[in-house]
Specification:
CATH class of the largest domain: Alpha Beta
CATH architecture of the largest domain: 3-Layer(aba) Sandwich
CATH topology of the largest domain: Rossmann fold
Largest sheet: 6 strands, parallel
Number of strands: 6
Radius of gyration: 18 Å
Distance between the termini: 5 Å
Helix content: 40-55%
Strand content: 5-15%
Shape: globular
Strand order of the largest sheet: 3-2-1-4-5-6
Structural class: alpha/beta
Number of helices: 11
Number of domains: 2
CATH superfamily of the largest domain: HAD superfamily/HAD-like
Length: about 240
């Protein structure tokens, strides 16, 4: 195995996506109209983010895009005061409740064992996630095994933008060829990692889809569950 690091998405990769969806639903029910606008405009950010100015902090950009409801930055200069009400709602109605719900998170069986194997081989472990890190890694008992972790809050972009993966490489001080990325979304994780030059594998894919590898041409491998991925990775590391 030629890799020097293995990097991971979090949500849906290290713990079940159904858990995330239940938590997001609880948040949505408290302020449904604002939540719909938030979700709609995160999709718009993915479409337009390459045209955004780099100077605006990510959550302020979210507030701006939500308020304008177009997915695009305004032509006029950005002023925090113009978006403060929306920013406060974003913080109080989305992110603070989300942080509370993530005070404890249970990983898939075997995740810590896999991380320990990677660590024991002297490989570095990185994490990049679209949603804030909060205390997810600590709650799963993984924080002390992770060498570097970041989210879109840190880099200012959502996956699949290559900036997210380049940020990982820069902070791990590695070239793309040295890193394997692991995620559960083909469009966000695999296509994004590929655009940045990283090898990647797809995990937790529904069995009917996983059997058709032609559906995931950019993935190095496709796995139905974490255990299958662990067996593959263990064999790779033992070949060294």
């Amino acid at each position: 195995m030629a890799y020097k690091a293995v990097c991971f998405d979090i949500d849906g990769t290290l713990y079940p996506i159904s858990v995330m969806n239940r938590r997001l639903l609880r948040i949505a029910l408290a302020h449904p109209l604002f939540n719909l606008r938030y979700r709609k405009n995160r999709k718009q950010i993915r479409l337009h983010q390459n045209n955004y100015s780099k100077a605006i902090p990510f959550r302020w950009r979210e507030a701006m895009v939500i308020q304008n409801d177009t997915g695009k930055e305004p032509d006029v200069s950005f002023e925090e005061k113009d978006y403060k009400a929306t920013y406060d709602r974003l913080q109080n109605w989305i992110y603070k409740p989300m942080e509370k719900l993530y005070q404890s998170t249970e990983a898939f069986d075997g995740v810590r064992k896999t991380f320990e194997k990677i660590h024991s081989k002297g490989l570095k472990i990185g994490v990049f996630t679209d949603f804030p890190l909060f205390s997810k890694l600590k709650g799963m008992g993984l924080d002390e095994l992770v060498d570097f972790a970041a989210s879109s809050d840190d880099v200012g972009f959502l996956k699949p933008d290559a900036h997210c993966f380049e940020y990982l490489l820069y902070n791990l001080k590695m070239d793309a060829k040295d890193v394997l990325y692991v995620g559960d979304s083909y469009t966000k994780d695999i296509e994004g990692a590929s655009a940045a030059g990283l090898d990647s594998v797809l995990v937790n894919v529904r069995p009917a889809e996983a059997d058709d590898a032609r559906s995931f041409p950019l993935a190095k491998a496709v796995f139905k569950n974490w255990n299958d991925f662990d067996n593959w990775l263990t064999a790779k590391m033992e070949d060294d």
